Amino acid sequence: MKQITSIQNPLIKLLVQLQEKAKVRKQSGTFIIEGKREIELAQKGKYELETVLFLPELISEKDVNVFVKQGIEVIEITKDVYQKVAYRDTTEGIVAIAKTKSLDLSDLKLGKNSLILVAEGIEKPGNLGAMLRTADAARLDAVIIANQKTDMYNPNVIRSSVGCLFTNQVATGTTEEIIAFLKKNKINFYSATLQNSTSYDTQNYTKSTAIVVGTEAAGLTQPWRDEATQNIIIPMQGEIDSMNVSVAAAIVLFEAKRQRGF
User: Fold this and answer.
1) What phi and psi values does residue 188 have, to the nearest 5 degrees?
2) According to the model, what pLDDT value does residue 100 have?
3) What is the C-alpha to C-alpha distance for residues 70 and 200, in angstroms, rounded to an integer?
4) pLDDT of residue 172
5) pLDDT at 62 (0 to 100)
6) Nearest to 171 by CA among 182, 184, 155, 163
7) Quick check: pTM over 0.90?
8) Using CA atoms, how far apart are residues 230 and 80, in angstroms rounded to an integer?
9) Residue 146: beta bridge partners?
10) Sheet of strand 73-77, all strands in order from the earlier edge strand to the far edge
11) List of the chain residues with pLDDT < 70
């Protein structure tokens, strides 16, 4: 089995760049997955692994032999090398290089009465990851990112989603493209916004539905407000007029799930 003992190794330098730079991820068509559960979820989600690197002190040879049997390159690394490439403080001693997937709207496979989350202009990877976790918990048909501000393969998105990036159908596009896609597929969409809104719990989400949320700072852009089936709001009883976008998305999505009988 191949071993790498130096942090100056070209592959290790590439791993560091893949962790840190969206441009490198885009150019290479690859990204990093860290952690046993996350790697398992990625494979379940049909992501192709190119290379697996492991620290024998933290993960058994039996665990990595699974990848050897699949014909995936497996490399043993030292503690110094692992500390250089590991993004998380606590992990299981395994890192993989995987191929990115197409995130085109045309790749989505939707069934009858789909339930979709659309998130516009989300910048914080933690918020994006939290919404992907919610989407997995609610077993949504898709998550669509409008006017993408954060690379979907950012390590913080993967970490904060606890691998749910791989368990959801995900697509990206411009606001205009996504609105056209929703209308073409006869999907009602409800925009969470302060303007011209009615309480979220008064609407019927049992037909094909998309819940649309934006950033706490800027909210949704005008097309979402103008074109929505209905603008909706979560009634607030405190001093502030907004809540964390991932929390707001969860509240409305689980109302839709409630109406659908979970």
Assistant:
1) -65, 140
2) 98
3) 48
4) 98
5) 87
6) 182
7) yes
8) 55
9) 120, 173
10) 2-4, 73-77, 49-54, 94-99, 30-34
11) 89-91
Tokens of 254: 């689980």
* pLDDT of res. 258: 98
**CB of 250 within 8 A of CB of 134?**
yes
- SS3 letters across the chain: CEEECCCCCHHHHHHHHHHHCHHHHHHHCEEEEECHHHHHHHHHCCCCEEEEEECCCCCCHHHHHHHHHCCCEEEEECHHHHHHHCCCCCCCCEEEEEECCCCCHHHCCCCCCCEEEEEECCCCHHHHHHHHHHHHHCCCCEEEEECCCCCCCCHHHHHHCCCCCCCCCEEEECHHHHHHHHHHCCCEEEEECCCCCEEHHHCCCCCCEEEEECECCCECCHHHHHHCCEEEECCCCCCCCCCCHHHHHHHHHHHHHHHCCC
Structure tokens at 217: 């700072």
Q: Look up residue 249 and give its two tokens.
A: 């998305």
User: How many residues make up the chain in this entry?
Assistant: 262
Are the CB atoms for 152 and 146 separated by under 8 Å? no
Q: How confident is the model at residue 12, as a pLDDT? A: 97
The backbone torsions φ and ψ at residue 235, rounded to the nearest 5 degrees and listed phi first, read -55, 130
Give the pLDDT of residue 217. 82
In this prediction, residue 27 carries a pLDDT of 97
Pairing of strands 94-99, 30-34: antiparallel
